[in-house]
Design goal:
elongated; about 15% strand; alpha+beta; 6 helices; 5-stranded mixed β-sheet; DNA polymerase, domain 1; Ubiquitin-like (UB roll)
Length: about 170
Amino acid sequence: MKNNTSGENPIKPLEKVTVSLKVNGRDVEVTVPVHYTLLDILRYELAQTGTKEGCGMGECGACTVIMNDEIVAACLVLATAARGKAVQTIEGIRETPRGRQLIEAFVKHAAVQCGFCTPGMIVSAYSLISKYKVPTREQITEALSGNLCRCTGYVKIFDAINDAAAEIKKGEVA
């Protein structure tokens, strides 16, 4: 092993990358360390703190966002993989009529306990209701399969999604 006698720091600063993407309909550009994930960009660079960091391994669903119309775990998407993508977070979803309807149904049915999983659940439900006007129980189960909740036991969450879907269909909320 060779000793560093030059006095230079042998540890190089982290390389940075510039990432341009669209978040909740807004074009953004950030320069971040290469190891950053989409979750890091959302929370630390763009203050989209509704997207939570749970397990950091894509298992819990707390960091669920919609990227190019697909559900993804933001903790698993490297910053560079998000380049040029369109991302919707809970903050953007809550600004839509359909998103507000879902949030109201979650409150009405007491589907929110500690609230940590709720943003990811609502993002997944929003994506589901965007694809299926009145989803079946099996479709809801599948849509929420990547979201874990340790508080409600899911019955209230299913009821909230069913109720929101019915209200949306009845009023044809966009």
